[in-house]
Specification:
By secondary structure, the chain is an alpha+beta fold. The chain has one domain: START domain (Alpha-D-Glucose-1,6-Bisphosphate, Chain A, domain 4, 2-Layer Sandwich), CATH 3.30.530. It contains 3 helices and 8 strands, in the order ββααββββββα. Strands 1, 2, 3, 4, 5, 6, 7 and 8 form an 8-stranded antiparallel β-sheet that branches. The chain starts with a strand and ends with a helix. This is SRPBCC family protein.
Length: 130
């Protein structure tokens, strides 16, 4: 399953946005309003839950300085990544696009496509407000 958010302009330099997203504590400020739980598990891992959805654990998997940050599932039961692609627009503006890649069976894919699309849309929208 491949889901891509719309590109969003952020009033931060590429480097500032990269450092902001590299600190997983900052994801709490990007979460949707219907977040019922957010917990830092380690320096590179956090868990969250949205109302009516199971808890999800995300772990920082890869950082390509100033261009890309990859978060992945913190659970061996699910296989997915959430990648933030960052591009400089101006000295103090950047553009970000979130890409979700997951390996799910057809039934699971149908059930989660809507909520995942909404979730990454909210994350990028909230980044645009930074």
């Amino acid at each position: 399953m491949h889901i891509e958010s719309p590109k969003t302009t952020v009033n931060k330099s590429r480097e500032e946005l990269f450092h902001f997203l590299s600190d997983i504590k900052n994801f709490e400020t990007l979460m949707p309003e219907n977040t019922s739980m957010f917990e830092i598990l380690s320096e590179n891992k956090f868990a969250f839950a949205l109302k009516g959805m199971p808890e999800i654990t995300l772990e920082l998997k890869e950082k390509n300085e100033f261009d890309r940050i990859v978060l992945g599932s913190g659970s061996s039961k699910l296989s997915f990544t959430l990648t933030a692609n960052i591009r400089a627009i101006e000295a103090d503006k950047s553009e970000v696009c979130l890409v979700f890649e997951g390996d799910f069976n057809a039934m699971m894919g149908m059930m989660i496509k809507g909520p995942i699309t909404s979730f990454i849309g909210t994350l990028t929208e909230n980044m645009g407000k930074l």
